[in-house]
Design brief:
mainly alpha
Length: about 210
């Protein structure tokens, strides 16, 4: 493989990792907010949060990316391809993060909630000091698995011209007419994802010991 193609692969891998990190941050922030609203005291906010989750869980992720990339410019909002992919992947993944956080909150014992209320804690204080810390400890393993899925989902960003790993593979294949490049790219995904999977398994074992 030529040095130029190697450079393309390296730059694509760095773009993939950067896209994974930025979209994961968006997903974590938005997903946590939606997850909290789903268990909040206001019915209208619970319904709105549930609608968000159902909407994004029932449409293809490609639809989200295309709407942001092609639809927003019609409204005068123009973002780079990378930003469009970040928001598209982040908002889409946030629906799944929200469900994980919601399940984590529901896993907190009823006795602890009653104890927090007896101490006079409001809903916001109870979230901060009681619910969310325990919810995140329960949610770490599924969130780790979701992160691995997100890294693989970044490959779809090539459809809106983000120069991530899969995009660079198509460029190399177009130049060399050698489809084996996709096997190499697949192996790179495996090499990156296996340590993440081991880290998730380690975190899950540690959490079991703590509990």
């Amino acid at each position: 493989m030529s040095s130029e193609n190697i450079q393309l692969i390296v730059s694509g891998l760095l773009a993939t990792l950067a896209l994974t990190a930025t979209s994961a941050l968006v997903a974590l922030i938005v997903g946590t907010l939606i997850g909290v609203l789903r268990v909040g005291p206001r019915a209208i906010l619970r319904e709105a949060a549930a609608g968000y989750v159902e909407f994004f869980r029932n449409i293809p992720i490609l639809t989200v990316l295309f709407f942001i990339y092609f639809g927003l410019p019609a409204s005068g909002i123009r973002l780079s391809s990378f930003s469009c992919a970040t928001w598209g992947l982040g908002l889409y993944t946030a629906a799944y993060v929200a469900e994980i956080i919601r399940s984590g909150i529901y896993s907190v014992g009823r006795g602890q909630i009653e104890a927090a209320r007896s101490l006079g804690l409001g809903f916001t204080q109870m979230l901060r000091f009681v619910l969310l810390p325990q919810a995140f400890s329960v949610a770490i393993p599924p969130l780790g698995t979701l992160l691995i899925a997100l890294l693989k989902n970044t490959a779809i960003a090539q459809s809106i011209a983000v120069t991530e790993l899969f995009y660079q593979a198509t460029v190399i294949e177009g130049r060399t007419f050698n489809p084996n490049i996709f096997l190499i790219i697949g192996l790179i995904y495996v090499v990156v994802n296996i340590p993440l999977g081991l880290l998730v398994n380690y975190a899950e074992r540690r959490l079991r010991i703590v509990r």
